[in-house]
Predict the structure of Schlafen AlbA-2 domain-containing protein.
Amino acid sequence: MDCHKLRRLLKKEEGPKLDFKAEYDLSTESGKKELTKDVIAIANSRGGRGYIILGIEDKTKRVLGIEPKRYTEEQIQQIIYNRCDPPVPISVDFVGLDGKTVGVITVYRSSHKPHQMIQNGAFYIRRGSTTDIARRSEIANLFQENGLMTYETVILKNVGMEELELRAY
């Protein structure tokens, strides 16, 4: 990630694949959970790679910057790896912008959707610019879209033998 690409991202509005954050407090469990929730939501949403940009004021997009010592790639990778099932592929970059340091978490397109938070069992998605818990139908769609559940493999309960179409075989 370079400052030119970062400036292009800052011109865009928040959406399913782009989130601006002033900061995460990764010294607390709630901060780690918030980071994990946002990464999962972007990974589970349709489209290619997504970005969480740290050190940017949410509504105004003012560059606040972050203290890079408080965020290391290893720390962020471990938080995501230990709290997501399956783990979400990410990378972390630090970019100088307007004399401040901005963190960019790239959430890569995943072929292992849907991703779930291990701690609470929830599946998250982005609805526009907000992170939300996925509904049952949305979770089913994620499983179907990624070939993890097909109509041929779904168990039908309370179906009698007379329902089988034996001539088809």
About this structure: The two ends are 55 Å apart (CA to CA). The beta strands are 18-21, 50-54, 84-85, 90-97, 100-107, 116-117, 124-127, 130-133.
